[in-house]
Amino acid sequence: MILGIETSCDDTCAALVTRDGSIRANVVASQGLLHERYGGVVPEIASRQHLEVLDSVVDDTLERAGATLDDVDEVAVTRGPGLIGALLVGVSAAKALAAARRLPLAPVDHLHGHVTASMLGDDPIEVPYLVLVASGGHTFLARVDDPSEYRVLGETLDDAAGEAFDKGARLLGLGYPGGPEIDRLARDGDPTAFDFPRSQPGDGLAFSFSGLKTSLLYTVRDHPDADQADLAASYQRAIVDALVARLEQAVEREGLDRVALGGGVAANRELRERVSALGPRVRVPPIELCTDNAAMIAGAARFGRALPYPEYLDLDAAARL
Ligand code: KG4
Ligand code: ZN
To answer: Does any domain span residue 321?
Structure first.
């Protein structure tokens, strides 16, 4: 089994995954409450908390799988991109665990994890497929022909979709992270109440969300008595419309109807429903595989090259890859 470790942002994650992609345990210790009062992730607090809890998260993972370190034949860890201090905690722990047992260590690109999350479980998506990854830090469309790599077809020119949710929520006076808050509020609102822009920059498959955020700012200013749920529903509809439009264009352009979804925004109810409706060959993974987790990191490691001991002893984390 592969032991995966993921600490790129504010979730401390470990997982055990078999070579054929079955998940034996997938544990996430969320730091959400620690950061909430600051309205966003505080990098130093995130690193310190990873350090505090990572050992217990790994123990818990082994226990839930009914396994011990003897059952682990490879360690996989997120090397980047992410918060450098947070990544360093995971990379150092993974190196120590692997070196103590002379196990191979696979450095994993966090985004490769989101891209291949749909290849886990009983009904894995098969290559070639298209994937829309929308998270707090990244939003892009990619094509996967070989599971060891992905080709980006288009990405956001400014804010990520999750960032648009988080900044929008802040403008509406909601808590952090904003995505789940808007998702919840939008259920009681009218998505046609306000007309927000759906930007489709350029003639490729790029995204842009900064204009939308500004538009919400002006709408809130000009309509101080507007219904919060209507604002949330209309704003969410604009983000989802922009994501789905590009995904449909990619399906058309690439002539591929096998489609997967990944990243925290893929937890959004409206996005999940709209993408699921695109066709029978669409995979929308369970929410716990969309938001940050270590199962997707161990899963992606199946397709990469693990470094043998002691080659990885000088492995470094990287904020950008
Ligand atoms: O993939 P992720 O867990 O971490 C990153 O790698 O960024 O994504 C976090 C992002 C946050 O911006 C959060 O607001 C958003 O995913 N998110 C959602 C929902 N759940 C999480 N956005 C919309 N609707 C949701 N239900
Ligand atoms: Zn992520």
So the answer is: no
Partner residues linked to 105 by β-bridges: 75, 307
Q: Which domain covers residue 210, as residue numbers? A: 125-284
Alpha helices by DSSP H, 255-319: 269-276, 287-290, 295-301
Closest CA to 109 of 133, 145, 73: 133
Model pLDDT, residue 289? 98
Q: Report which ligand 1 atom has the smallest distance to the Cα of 269.
A: 26
Tens of pLDDT, residues 37-83: 888 899 999 999 999 999 999 999 999 999 999 999 999 999 999 99
Probe residue for ligand 1, chosen from 13, 35, 165 as the CB with the greatest number of ligand atoms within 8 Å = 165
Is the same domain home to 191 and 269? yes
Confidence (pLDDT) at 33: 86
Q: Residue 272 Cα, ligand 1 centroid: separation in angstroms?
A: 13
As for how many domains the chain has, the answer is 2
Residues with CB under 6 Å of ligand 1 are 9, 135-137, 162, 165-166, 177-180, 183, 263-265, 267-268, 291-292
Average pLDDT over residues 174-203: 94
Of 291, 284, 269, nearest to 188 by C-alpha is 269
- Measured from the Cα of 166, ligand 1's closest atom is 14
pLDDT beyond 90 at 203: no
* Statement to judge: residues 151 and 43 lie in one domain: no
Q: What is the CA radius of gyration of the chain?
A: 20
Is pLDDT above 90 for 36? no
Average pLDDT over residues 101-125: 97
| Gap from CA of 219 to ligand 2 centroid (Å) | 30
Cut 0.90: pTM above it: yes
**Domain check: are 84 and 169 in the same one?**
no
